Amino acid sequence: MYLFYSLFSDSIGLSDCWGFGFNALDNSSSESTLGQSIFVQVRELNHTEEMGSVGVNIEIPATKSPFIQSYLIQAEGYIKTITDRLDEKNILEGRVPNSIRIGGVVIKGTVQF
């Protein structure tokens, strides 16, 4: 029995932001939870965004069946991390912390005829 597999990485990214700018982190977290934007203001920024995804394809040939050619298993994993170095300052000023980590895995099985 032969087993075919492939490993691929869709994307890996890292973004650093510091200085002053609009409160995009506050607005993006508000939009995702409440569906609306909060007010726009210029404020101090110091955060890092990390994003990544990886996938695996495994194909198993079906040698004992006249109708099935192979079984295909696909798995993908995702992660996004925002690390706000000003979270302690935000909490003291009554704002919600912006640091967050989100991850997920998708696994799919397919029978190929």
Task: Sum up the structure in keywords.
rod-shaped, 4-stranded antiparallel sheet, alpha+beta, about 110 residues
Q: Can you offer a commentary on this structure?
A:
- Strand 2 and strand 3 (70-84) form a beta hairpin.
- The protein starts with a strand and ends with a strand.
- The longest helix is centred in the N-terminal third of the chain and has 11 residues, at 24-34.
- The mean pLDDT is 77.
- Helices cover 15% and strands 59% of the residues.
- It is α+β, with helices and mostly antiparallel strands.
- The radius of gyration is 22 Å and the shape is rod-shaped.
- It has a 4-stranded antiparallel sheet, with no helix packed on it.
- It is built from 2 helices and 4 strands, in the order βαββαβ.
Q: Whole-number radius of gyration?
A: 22 Å
Strand order of the largest sheet: 1-2-3-4
Helix content: 10-25%
Q: Give the overall form.
A: rod-shaped
How far the N terminus sits from the C terminus, by CA atoms, comes to: 18 Å
Secondary-structure element order, N to C: EHEEHE
Residue fraction in strands: over 45%
Structural class: alpha+beta
Number of discrete helical segments: 2
**Number of E strands:** 4
Report low-confidence residues grouped into runs of 5 or more.
Answer: none
Q: What is the makeup of the main sheet?
A: 4 strands, antiparallel
On the 0-100 scale, what is the average pLDDT? 77
Can you give me a brief rundown of this structure?
Helices cover 15% and strands 59% of the residues. The chain has 113 residues and is an alpha+beta fold.
